[in-house]
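Please produce the structure of this protein holding pyridoxal-5'-phosphate.
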Amino acid sequence: MIRVLELARPDILTLQPYQHAAWEPSLERMHANEMPWRADGDPTSAGLNRYPQPQPAELISHLAALYGVEPRNVLAGRGGDEGIDLLIRTFCRAGHDSILICPPTFGMYKVSARIQGAAVVEVPLVKANGFALDTNGVLAACNENVKLVFICSPNNPTGNLLERCAIEFLCTQLANKAIVVVDEAYIEFARTDSIVASIRQFENLVVLRTLSKAYALAGARCGTVIAHADIISLLARVITPYALPTQTIESVLKFTDEAHCAAARRLTEVLLSERARMSELLSRLPLIRRVWHSDANFLLVECVDAARVVRAATAARLIVRDPQQPTLPNCLRISIGTPEQNDRLLRGIVAAGTETEGVA
Ligand SMILES: *Cc1c(COP(=O)(O)O)cnc(C)c1O
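Below is the modeled complex.
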């Protein structure tokens, strides 16, 4: 057992996991209380009458190849969100332990911590420095109850990539003290490599990846936790045995084959050129004060009056998001759309800027 596992909840380390029905595809199943007949029109190849294989071997090898790691380093779950929740449930004792987050950041870390009864320590990103990581601040705040440090890179909602050497420095300094969770939900939109290869070097590094963003599979619900094999085995005891539905397993294999991956890369390039175009055009509009640099598939914009921009978007039949972070007043997060949607939003904001609003 690697030493970082000592950070896990003792009751999870000794947990006797649920013994799911044996997976023996060469034999016919009379051991799982399933119906022996398929439902009419069942479109799946495995049959929806059957329980799916827990952590299906073919899917796990496929995801491992996709992310450039070994199958033993991979756990698949229902989106990155399930990975976040599992990590917190596995490592944080309710009422005792904490996670550390760097706001403004993704809201699920805090929600999952609250659900588990874990406290949340906050060390803000440095706005004056393009929302950079406050590495020394993080280290200073890591007392012995902080089990997980969540680093979102590229960060949602600010869009920027965090410095890789700063993250690796945290891994070194926190060895055997805390796990560094790097959430790379948007890494495919950043012109840089994932940090996954570094799991070989750091036992306390956990990386989260998802098919929801660049692979256009948000509805399939498939996220991957990538870490040292011992961490993966521990999480595998906690995850619900049949986490991934048959349709998810089959869709992921189908829609992340070589041809679909090539298509995803081409569309990502289109999206990146739209991101550059939107960034440039938005920053020239009188209602927009500032457009932050983005390494993701969205832009954080600071408006003169965010409510007015929201109304303009709604009038153009588009929704944009107020990230609702105290440090981001008058800011909106705009997902990059199709060229047509982007044009429609721009036209809407231009039109709102030329109207004289609120003048009696
Ligand atoms: C979208 C997102 C995720 C994961 O989403 P899933 O659909 O659950 O995979 C994780 N982290 C961040 C920062 C995200 O924005």
